[in-house]
Amino acid sequence: MVGVKVEFLGGLDVVFNKQRLHKVDITDPPVPTVRDLIDYIVKNMIHNENDVGVFVENGTVRPGILTLINDTDWELEGGEAYELENGDVVSFTSTLHGG
Predict the structure, then answer these.
(1) Residue 51, in any domain of the structure
(2) Domain count, the chain
(3) HEC assignment per residue over 25-57
(4) How far is CA 66 from CA 11, 27, 71, 98, in A?
(5) What letter would DSSP give residue 84?
């Protein structure tokens, strides 16, 4: 099991019951990746099916959502292939704001 903190910022918290910080335990697979975390979020944390498209597009984090792993751009950490470790903090921040 790997325990991580997940933050939803920039208005994304609305999709997650207006809660910005979540503690998530991923038990399968034994060495989960950010891809597994994204799947977990979609399957277990987004309760309104209409909100899935706010977070993901074509099976990955939607363009316009900045994704950080321990305050580092996920692209520098390997993106979806990054293997999560206990205590990691994964932040998703929407850069798309209505006007």
Answers:
(1) yes
(2) 1
(3) EECCCCCCEHHHHHHHHHHHHCCCHHHHHHHEE
(4) 12, 25, 11, 16
(5) P
What's the CA gap between 5 and 26, in Å, rounded?
11
Number of H helices and E strands in the chain, helices first, is 3, 7
On whether residue 7 sits in a domain, the answer given is yes
Cis peptide before 29 (omega within 30 of 0): yes
Pairing relationship of beta strands 72-73 and 89-94 according to DSSP bridges = unpaired
Is the whole-model pTM more than 0.90? yes
**Spatial CA neighbour of 6 closest among 36, 47, 51:** 36
Range of the domain at 21: 2-94
8 A C-beta contact, residue 68 and residue 21: no
C-alpha 77 chain-centroid distance? 14
pLDDT tens column, 27-82: 999 999 999 999 999 999 999 999 999 999 999 999 999 999 999 999 999 999 99
Q: Are 50 and 5 in contact (CB under 8 A)?
A: no
